[in-house]
Structures are given as C-alpha cells and as structure tokens.
C-alpha cells in the first residue's frame, strides 16, 4: 500500500458531498466533501506501489478541467487511469444530483 | 417479445439495500463519511474501505420500518472484520431493542461474504458469534430474512449465521457452504474436493441444489422485483414455521438413514431428502455412529477433562464423538458436553474430533433436552468442554449442509442461554473456527486454561496463507501487529471475551487439585451467569474489551445515535 497527497488551487465550492465506487479489484472508492478553503486536497491510498507520477498526471488533468474546492479521499484497488477519471466525474455528478435533491 | 430482467446480483451492496427498501425510504447509517473504517488493515498494508464493506440502511418495507444489512462482496471478499462485524451485530441488536419496545422493525440481511476476514481473524469470529446470538433472539419476534444473491455466496461463519435465519432466499448463482472449495482442497486434498471444478461446486452448494435439498426457502431469478416480492411474501405471512436450525429430530433421523458406504451424489442427496420429508425415507433403528470399545477411545484433552469433571455413572455414548453426562458440581447438577475423536467414525473427515454433521445436530439434541426438561423448573447449567481442532473439511459434509448442523448447535446453545440456563464454555485445548462457533462461543461465560496448547483461531496457517495470498512468514509477521490474528490464548484474552484465564493447571494430566480449581471456577462462572444479562453484552463490557475491542464498541454507539 502507498499513500499519496496532492493539492490544487480551486475557486468554486463543491455543491454537496459525494461517495462513489468500491475498493474492489480494478476499482476504487472516492469520497468528496466541500472544502471551505480555495483548494482541492486529494489523499490517495493505493494497493499498487510506484505509480505516483501517473496519479499526479491523472488528477492534475481532472482538476484543471473541473474547478472544485473539495477534500477528496481515494481508496484504490488497482484501477486504471480511465476508471479513475470516470469515477471522479461520477463523484462530481453525484454531488450535483445530491444538491438538487436537497433543494 | 423479450423482457430483460433487472439484475440484483450486478448491483453493489448499497444499491442492493436501496432496491430492497421501498422507493425513496433508504437512509444509510454509519456510512462512508462517518470515518469508521477498519483500523487493522492499514498496518498490514491493505487499503481499507470507508464503510468497511457493510451497508446498514434504515427505511421501510411495504410501509413498515425496516433495516437492511448488505455485505459488499467486492471488498475483501465480503470478509467480516471488527468494524463490519460490529455493524451487522449492532444493527441486529438495535432491531431487537425495537421489537422489545413494540416496534416491528423488519430485518433483512444480504449475505455476500467469504466469512471471517482472515486479516482480522478472531475479531471476525467474535462478531459472528454476536451476530448469531442476535439473530436467534430477534427471530422470536419477527422473521429474520437472509438473501444470498451471489457472486461470492455465503461462507465460513456467516453461513452459520444464514443457517439461523427464519427464511433464506437464494438465486441459482448463489452458493452457501461452511468451507469454501479452496479451503477444503487445501485441508483435505484435491481428491476430496477439486476447487477448480465449477460444475462440482455449484452442484454441491449452489442455489438450485440447496433449494432442492431443503436448505433454502425460495429460489428466485436474479431480478430485483422477484427478490423484493419474495421478501414481501415472507413478511406478509402470519406465522413462519420453526427455523431449520431448530428441527433437530427431522435432521437427525434423516442423517441416521443415510448409508455412507458409497459416495452420495448431489442428485441422490436431493432424492433422499425428498423421500425423508414425504415420510418415505428408510428408517434406520441404528444410532448415528457405530459404538466403540473402551480400547478404541482415542486420548484427547476434551475426553480427559470430560471424564475428570463428569465423574458420572451414566455417560451418554449413543454418539461416540459427542459425550454427554449430567453430574453434580458443588450443590447442583450440571450437563457436560464434549466433542471427542472417534477413529471409526463413518464420516471419515471428523475422525480427529472435528465438528461435523452428526456432532452439530447431536450437540443441539443434548442442549435442547435440558431446555425441555427444565422448562418449568430450575434452569440447569450447561458446560461445553471445548477441544475442537476445526470443523470437518469434506465433500459429504458440505453436501449435507455442515453450516446447518453448526447452526443447529449455535441455535440450541443460544436458546438455552436466552431461556436462563447458564451456558459455560471451558476451553481445554483447541477452539478453532466454525467448530468453536458451534461449540463454545454462545456461552454466557468462556473460561480457558492458560496453557501453550490452548489455541483459538479461524483457520490453519497454511490455508490462511493460501486464501490471503501471503507466505506463512508474512502471515506470522502480521500476527505481531494484530493480536486478533495470533493463535495463543493470551492474545485472545486481550479481546475481552474471556470470563477468566485459569492459571497453573496441568491441562494434559489434571491432578485432583487441578480439577478442584477448575470446578471452583466453573461454580463461580455459573453464579455470574445467573446474575448477568442473558445476551452476550458482557463481552464488550469487560475491562480488556474497552481497549481490545474499541472499534466494536464505537460502531455500536454510532449506530444507536443514528438509528432513530
């Protein structure tokens, strides 16, 4: 297991918290919570060691496109970059849906 | 026109819970954002999951309050660790509290689990004992419904929990058995069970076979509405028949009628069962096992201590592998039960004193005799002398429903405890896995001899290494960090479930003073049991448990706060 930390500047607050995915083979779990700070902080715990650079690229790309101030926790069980990006997008979508439901 | 089914199996655990509850009523408690993940996985280099693989959801089923407990098979094979186990047990305990307060909360458990999470070993074992205790208590008020959809199925100690449910629903894809195919192959060899033979596996323990052989109540398609309807049907019934795990006479006479001189195929087994329940079975006047001469008695600590304590004139040896006697202890009569080796046992996989089909059902019989006899009088104490190397690992055992036989024993001990009988377990040797769940873990008080050969665990090191894909060295390294993974009784004591660790006793050749000492401790334990609650809550109230099972306590506290 390896733990990685990343941080990105952000301006828009995440609408509501969101949880997606499962820590199962080739998949991952993401917890996203709104943050009061103008930053996105990501903690990754992954079962596969040595892919820090790949994680940095995948996450940087995602949070460059999506401006959300959030605390993000990722528990990974060997997901591919494609799956990671898809789950991140899903988490954003769920967050927006949750916000609509709450209204 | 083709109608596509709406798959239940393909859903994750959370969506399964949502699907079972009435639309729009799902409310998860102690969920991903409550921060209660397993504290034991990260130290072993394993990525945890925020809900520890168990979803507890409140909501409604047909407008009535309900709780759905859904196990996520994709996370660590649905293994039961300290947190996930406490979530299941705690939710069932709260459902029980509701019933006692006149609220008929409907409990549903979705089993998708390999059993105890081997990385948390004895934490899982203790939790499963508590889950079993809660199901037996809860079942008196409301049906406890189990669903086994697949793909993992339901194995290990959790298959015993499923065997205690009022009703079980299964798909063809689901499987239920005490030992998984890989474990049987590891323990008994490939000639006993070939774990790569998928057809053999499903024919033996798959949904269709289990339904035909009477081990489940409903066989349903993998379809959301079919599963919901099956659940609704069960809750709508005015009365649910007595649970399978308490039908001792039916099963004992059934197994007595089976001739084991030839291997029994799954189809043959179905046929025999159908004949039996139609009253057309062969009635064998013989007892389950052939008798033994005194010379044949294999030495074992269980036998030694049984004879030392139950110095009775009349020892029931009807089933030579399960000894039973009533004897005086101090001023009262006590029933002693021990499982011992029988080298001529017709089930060859239990000849070393393992708990098998006949052992489970016979223990249930001996315990239930006491419940019935003392129905209106003083409740006799029952002492389980524990020296069990494991449950039986064998093809016939799984085909014949070993999980159900173990559930019968669990059911009987738990029922006796709830009826007010002090149930005491005395561990004098090994107390391993499903065998210990069946014989010992339902006790009000567990006593153990403080001895190097007293071992408590969930699986042999070889099998545990194979299943968790680690070397034995790596496994031993992990036991240093997690006391629940260690095999010795002193590590087990740190979890707080022991009433007492008895020092300075010769466990192999007990002398008069050793026996006296143990008798005194038993008398004290029986008194304690009489003045204590009839459930297992004392295990978490002990001083050691405050530290040793901190997470188990915290999970229950959080569940109670969010239950409403």
Automatic annotation (TrEMBL), chain A:
Modification after translation, per record: Covalently binds the prosthetic group of malonate decarboxylase.
The protein's name in its UniProt record: Malonate decarboxylase acyl carrier protein
Coiled coil: none
InterPro entries per UniProt: Mal_deCO2ase/Cit_lyase_ACP, Malonate_deCO2ase_dsu
Residue ranges of the TM segments: none
Subcellular location, record wording: Cytoplasm
Domain of life according to the entry: Bacteria
Pfam families tied to this protein: ACP
Keywords: Cytoplasm, Phosphoprotein
Primary localization: cytoplasm
NCBIfam families: malonate_delta, PRK01220.1
Name of the encoding gene: mdcC
Taxonomic source organism: Parageobacillus caldoxylosilyticus NBRC 107762
Keyword Cytoplasm among UniProt keywords: yes
Modified residues (O-(phosphoribosyl dephospho-coenzyme A)serine): 25
GO CC term (a single one): cytoplasm
Keyword Phosphoprotein in record: yes
Automatic annotation (TrEMBL), chain B:
Signal peptide: none
Single GO molecular function: carboxy-lyase activity
GO-annotated cellular components: acetyl-CoA carboxylase complex
A Pfam family assignment: Carboxyl_trans
UniProt domain CoA carboxyltransferase N-terminal: residue ranges: 1-198
Family matches, as Gene3D superfamilies: 2-enoyl-CoA Hydratase, Chain A, domain 1 (3.90.226.10)
Example GO biological process: carbohydrate metabolic process
InterPro entries, per the entry: AccD/PCCB (IPR051047), AcCoA_carboxyl_beta (IPR034733), ClpP/crotonase-like_dom_sf (IPR029045), COA_CT_N (IPR011762), Malonate_beta (IPR017556), Malonate_gamma (IPR009648)
Chain segments annotated as coiled-coil in the UniProt record: none
Protein name: Malonate decarboxylase beta/gamma subunits
